[in-house]
Write a structure and sequence with these properties.
single chain; 129 residues; three-stranded antiparallel sheet; globular
Length: 129
């Protein structure tokens, strides 16, 4: 068991002009990015994946690395990690990444975790290309 989740590659994104259906900014991965979680699980978000940065107008980049993984894992729970993950596990990794990788305070990570637990279900395993 690791003390912290880590990102294994440089994080390069394009900020797109287009907005999603909720009016949130869209981002696109410029390269593949790997993650290593506290429990040893590995994840990969591929080049070209588009995501909306935590679906929040107040995110201001405070969780982009975590959001990229969370959005990809929600869209492809069977292929994002080295083994299939359930929604609650993906949400837990999101919370860990917010603190370990994006350097958010724990209170913000818990707040965003509660938001995805309450409101994220309708987006789980939704096609996201």
């Amino acid at each position: 068991m690791r003390n912290r989740a880590v990102i294994l590659d440089s994080f390069n994104i394009n900020i797109l002009e287009e907005r999603d259906q909720g009016g949130f900014r869209q981002y696109e991965m410029r390269n593949d990015i790997g993650y290593l979680m506290r429990d040893g699980a590995r994840a990969l978000v591929p080049k070209g994946f588009k995501f909306n940065g935590a679906s929040s107008p107040i995110n201001a980049g405070k969780g982009l690395k975590s959001a990229a993984l969370h959005d990809y894992a929600y869209a492809r729970p069977d292929s994002a990690f080295n083994e299939a993950k359930k929604r609650w596990e993906i949400d837990l990794y999101f919370r860990q990444c917010l603190v370990d990788i994006d350097s958010n305070p724990r209170w913000r990570a818990w707040t965003w975790w509660l938001a995805v637990r309450f409101f994220g279900g309708k987006h789980f395993n939704k096609k996201n290309d």
